[in-house]
């Protein structure tokens, strides 16, 4: 369910009544009974109209959670059960939305829960206002200023374990959006007497205990402190520890808070040094020392504490020591130094301690302000939170109580001023019928205290400034004379005889009837406290300190600025600051939280009727309710009212023409609001009950929802319509384009189809025409042919007898001639090449040309041979002749022959003429050398060959040593009978000599040469060419005899076996047989 739909009211599940205005019947008893009933159900908040009454529960309740914050956020004040958050929300929203500065006034007795309430308000505002890094930092600093100020300004009292001993007013500043910018804190009158003396059961300020319990050993050592409380005179011991309060943890919290607020490390250190110095100061003790002039002069008993303190603060010990023994009084031109007695020394010590501490506190406030002050100069909205000490009535009431109670009187004034008087006056102004409510206006008491001429504070100041002996008693005397007639002043000695016998009124006291009750003040100490005197010697000693913070705190100690005027009195200062505060508060819209304390025991669940009744009375709560009940809960000027609710009625919506008041009348009549629920003022409408207001608000909310729906409806309709129109327009455009495109395409289709059809038809027509034409032409041709044949036949028939005799031979001759011509022409084109070895010849075309064709081939061959031969030289011719002779000799007879065909017969293979080695050999030979080569001469004994140069000339052959060229044998060719060679591919040949010739004596030669064919051919040709010699026979056989000297040896050629290898091998088989194995080719 969304938040908007939750319809709750203050009236839902109410315990007692949530708003005292609704109580029936109204009496003090019912009032207190209602408070009690609610308190017992943990409903600690109750309203009187817009004022919140808060009962201190003395226990933590689960009503301050983040969920609660969300629940109360942006809700109407009367919508949910009473809560401090509702007030905070109301204040914050009217600050943010209506631009009204706010102040939240929290009043009540000490321990009633004011400080807690102020913290709840601040945390609520922090939770609901803007977020963001910068804003969060500001919030954090604002919130964290609390722990720091509480540590230094709060103490345990009999009424409250965490009682604020100073008044605090904090302005939180916001920008126009409601985001916090910063704040300003004002402090009022710290109860500084507590520093030197505490009543029974109470403590000094928290910071002293926190420092001693929480600081590290190291820090304590630096501060020259001891953890033991009992070592310090200023610390009361009977209640040094407080139940449920962990001083050590608090110290850490405070340190942390100081850091967040923005204190520098050295600043924190200085502050702690001052706190330590105050403790040390308390330990100084004095003893009397008689002087020759008979006066006693005070002396410091034990100087150790003094020394340590001086070290801490950087003060020269002797200066301070002297300040505790002497006092310099400056009057006009002269300085008079008087000694101090022991009592005066103690007075001076305590005055210094109090001043030191209270100035330190003020400095802290200023320092915090510096950190949290808004960074912008633009206009700020302000929410002030006032948490000031409540009304105090002790057994022994002194100057402080007087001041505090005065402050509370002033606040009551504001309350009266704004709620009661204002309210009544407004009714009168508006002409609303009004039964006057009697209420007590305490202005008269304020006047008694603050009147400039004869007020009590003025009297006190006068007395303090008066020359001559001034004591508290002379002050009381003065009061007795001046204020005697005042109806709220009571004193035994006053001229008013009424009190002469009043024994409840001691002699040294006066009594004031405050609005909250009678308080008896003891005059003792009034003058001193008002004077707040610190001997100038001490302030000068402090100013001389070598400690930055101390120097700042005692500016009057500066000798350059000696001011002989008396300093302002405490009373005067307080009166002035209260005056400023009041003025400030009056400019703001007030929100009240009235705190009530249910019992004196700080205990949960206890509700002491008498105590509550007393508070209800002096807070004037009953009057408050009465005024509320007699009056109207809500008022508003007609114009804004009409403006706000005009939508609730047809006549006023949307515009009302007449005056606003009439509009409102019509409106309310129309809504049937009962007549007793409202009244018409002059300029405002007054609504009696908040419920009526809620009713109007609820109606308005519904109506706004309806209106929103209507606006939404119209807007949606408009949006859809425009969208639709746009779509329609676009659709038309698209359609137009599409249609155009489609038509274009269709047209093109039709056009191309028409063309196709057309072309087919044309083609068909053309073909038809062509066919006809062709037919016509063929008919014509046929006619011509037929007529030609016909003519031919006619002619042939006619001329046949003339042709038959010669035509045959002539046609034959012509045909033959034609054929021959064609044959020769063809032959000319297909002639083979000129190479004699070319065997090709064109085929004959006709069988009858066969003989001539062969003959022509033969003639052509002979002719080209002749042509070929005619280009030969003589030399080449001889070579060819030699080759021819070789062919005749060996072709088909010896297997070696084919390998020689390709080799040209060079003749000289050893270059006999050129080689110088054979020069001699060459010269021995007479004829031209026809052949020179190296051959192997086969040894008959082993068949091995020895190389020999073989020379052949026309007449002889010569065998010579290959190396030396020495002739081994020379045989004339005439002596050669025949040559034997094998049929195989070996190079063996035997040269056989004629028997009986001279050469034969040495025997035949068996030689071997690769060029056997050339050698033998040349040898044979020499024989053939010469006439004198016989032809040399050439025997070709595989077995022949060779004559070696005496023996005939048979040389036999056999085919080689593979084991003999590829070479020719000659082996001697026996004496008569040489076997040559020749590898088969
Ligand atoms: N709303 C509350 N819820 C719980 N405890 C509270 C509440 N208000 C006050 N107290 C208790 O009462 C004590 C005194 O309250 P405090 O605000 O210091 O009083 P005052 O400032 O009026 O003297 C607090 O320390 C706290 O224990
Ligand atoms: Mg307080």
Automatic annotation (TrEMBL):
ATP binds at residues 108-115. The keyword ATP-binding applies. InterPro entries: IQ_motif_EF-hand-BS, Kinesin_motor_dom_sf, Myosin_head_motor_dom-like, Myosin_TH1, MYSc_Myo1, P-loop_NTPase. SUPFAM superfamilies: P-loop containing nucleoside triphosphate hydrolases. The keyword Nucleotide-binding applies. Residues 15-701 form the Myosin motor domain. This is Unconventional myosin-Ib. The gene is LOC109078018.
């Amino acid at each position: 369910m969304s938040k908007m739909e939750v319809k709750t009211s203050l009236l839902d599940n109410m315990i007692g009544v949530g708003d005292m205005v609704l109580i029936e019947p109204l009496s003090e008893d019912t009032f207190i009974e209602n408070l009690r009933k609610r308190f017992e159900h943990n409903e600690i908040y109750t309203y009187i109209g817009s004022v919140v009454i808060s009962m201190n529960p003395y226990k933590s309740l689960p009503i301050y959670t983040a969920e609660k914050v969300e629940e109360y956020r942006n809700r109407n004040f009367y919508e949910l059960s009473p809560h401090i958050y509702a007030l905070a929300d109301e204040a914050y929203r009217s600050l943010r939305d209506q631009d009204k500065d706010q102040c939240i006034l929290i009043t009540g007795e000490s321990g009633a829960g004011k400080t807690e309430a102020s913290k709840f308000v601040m945390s609520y505002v922090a939770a609901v206002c803007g977020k963001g890094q910068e804003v969060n930092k500001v919030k954090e600093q604002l919130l964290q200023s609390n722990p720091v100020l509480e540590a230094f300004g709060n103490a345990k009292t009999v009424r409250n374990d965490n009682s604020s001993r100073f008044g605090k007013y904090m302005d939180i500043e916001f920008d126009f959006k409601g985001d916090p910018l910063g704040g300003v804190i004002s402090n009022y009158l710290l109860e500084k007497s507590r520093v030197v003396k505490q009543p029974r059961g109470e403590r000094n300020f928290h910071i002293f205990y926190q420092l001693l319990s929480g600081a590290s050993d190291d820090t304590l050592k630096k501060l020259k402190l001891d953890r033991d409380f009992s070592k310090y005179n200023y610390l009361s011991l009977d209640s040094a520890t407080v139940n449920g309060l962990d001083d050590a943890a608090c110290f850490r919290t405070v340190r942390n808070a100081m850091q967040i607020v923005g204190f520098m490390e050295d600043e924190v250190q200085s502050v702690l040094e001052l706190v330590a110095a105050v403790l040390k100061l308390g330990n100084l003790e004095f003893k009397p020392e008689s002087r020759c002039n008979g006066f006693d002069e005070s002396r410091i008993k034990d100087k150790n504490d003094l020394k340590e303190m001086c070290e801490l603060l950087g003060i020269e010990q002797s200066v301070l020591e002297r300040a505790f023994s002497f006092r310099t009084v400056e009057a006009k031109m002269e300085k008079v130094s008087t000694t101090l007695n022991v009592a005066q020394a103690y007075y001076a010590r305590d005055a210094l301690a109090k001043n030191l501490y209270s100035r330190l506190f003020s400095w802290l406030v200023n320092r915090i302000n510096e950190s949290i002050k808004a960074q912008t100069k633009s206009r700020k909205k302000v929410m002030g939170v006032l948490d000031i000490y409540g009304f105090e009535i002790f057994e022994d009431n002194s100057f402080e109580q007087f001041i505090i109670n005065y402050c509370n009187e002033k606040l009551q004034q504001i309350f009266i001023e704004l709620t009661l008087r204002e309210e009544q006056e407004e009714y009168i102004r508006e002409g609303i019928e009004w039964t006057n409510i009697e209420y007590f206006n305490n202005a008269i008491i304020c006047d008694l205290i603050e009147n400039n001429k004869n007020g009590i504070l003025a009297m006190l100041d006068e007395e303090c400034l008066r020359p001559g002996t001034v004591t508290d008693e002379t002050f009381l005397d003065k009061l007795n004379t001046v204020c005697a007639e005042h109806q709220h002043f009571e004193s035994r000695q006053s001229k008013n005889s009424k009190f002469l016998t009043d024994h409840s009124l001691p002699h040294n006291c006066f009594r004031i009837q405050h609005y909250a009750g009678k308080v008896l003040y003891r005059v003792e100490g009034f003058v001193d406290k008002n004077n707040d005197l610190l001997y100038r010697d001490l302030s000068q000693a402090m100013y001389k300190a070598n400690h930055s913070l101390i120097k700042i705190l005692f500016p009057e100690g500066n000798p350059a600025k000696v001011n002989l005027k008396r300093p302002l009195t405490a009373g005067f200062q307080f009166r002035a600051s209260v005056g400023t505060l009041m003025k400030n508060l009056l400019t703001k819209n007030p929100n009240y939280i009235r705190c009530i304390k249910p019992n004196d025991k700080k205990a949960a669940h206890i509700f002491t009727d008498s105590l509550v009744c007393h508070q209800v009375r002096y807070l004037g709560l009953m009057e408050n309710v009465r005024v509320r009940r007699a009056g109207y809960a809500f008022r508003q000027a007609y114009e804004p009212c009409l403006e706000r609710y005009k939508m609730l009625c047809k006549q006023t919506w949307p515009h009302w023409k007449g005056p606003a008041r009439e509009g409102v009348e019509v409106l309310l009549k129309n809504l049937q609001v009962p007549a007793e629920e409202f009244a018409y003022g002059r300029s405002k409408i007054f609504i009696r009950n908040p419920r009526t207001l809620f009713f109007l608000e609820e109606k308005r909310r519904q109506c706004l929802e309806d209106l929103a729906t209507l606006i939404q409806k119209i807007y949606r309709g408009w949006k859809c319509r425009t969208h639709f129109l746009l779509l329609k327009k676009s659709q038309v455009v698209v359609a137009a384009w599409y249609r155009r495109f489609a038509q274009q395409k269709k047209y093109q289709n039709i056009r191309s189809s028409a063309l196709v059809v057309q072309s087919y038809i044309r083609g068909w027509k053309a073909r038809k025409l062509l066919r006809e034409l062709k037919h016509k032409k063929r008919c014509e041709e046929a006619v011509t042919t037929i007529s030609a044949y016909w003519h031919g036949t006619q002619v042939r028939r006619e001329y046949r007898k003339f042709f038959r005799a010669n035509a045959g031979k002539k046609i034959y001759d012509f045909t033959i001639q034609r054929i021959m011509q064609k044959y020769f022409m063809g032959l000319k084109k297909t002639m083979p090449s000129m190479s004699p070895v070319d065997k090709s010849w064109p085929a004959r075309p006709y069988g009858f040309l066969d003989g001539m064709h062969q003959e022509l081939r033969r003639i052509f061959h002979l002719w080209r041979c002749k042509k070929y031969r005619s280009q030969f030289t003589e030399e080449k011719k001889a070579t060819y002749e030699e080759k021819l002779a070789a062919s005749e000799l060996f072709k088909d007879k010896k297997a070696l022959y084919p390998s020689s065909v390709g080799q040209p017969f060079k003749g000289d293979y050893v270059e006999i003429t050129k080689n110088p080695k054979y020069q001699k050999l060459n010269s021995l030979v007479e004829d031209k050398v026809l052949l020179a080569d190296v051959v192997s001469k086969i040894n008959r004994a082993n068949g091995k060959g020895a190389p020999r140069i073989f020379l052949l000339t026309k007449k002889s052959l010569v065998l010579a040593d290959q190396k030396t060229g020495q002739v081994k044998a020379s045989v004339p060719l005439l002596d050669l009978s025949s040559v034997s060679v094998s049929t195989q591919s070996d190079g063996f040949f035997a040269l056989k000599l004629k028997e009986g010739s001279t050469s034969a004596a040495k025997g035949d030669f068996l030689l071997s040469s690769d060029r056997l064919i050339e050698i033998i051919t040349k040898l044979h040709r020499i024989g053939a060419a010469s006439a004198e010699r016989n032809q040399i026979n050439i025997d070709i056989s595989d077995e022949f005899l060779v004559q070696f000297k005496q023996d005939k040896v048979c040389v036999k050629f056999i085919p080689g076996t593979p084991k003999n290898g590829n070479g020719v091998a000659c082996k001697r088989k026996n004496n008569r047989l040489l076997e040559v194995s020749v590898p088969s080719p």
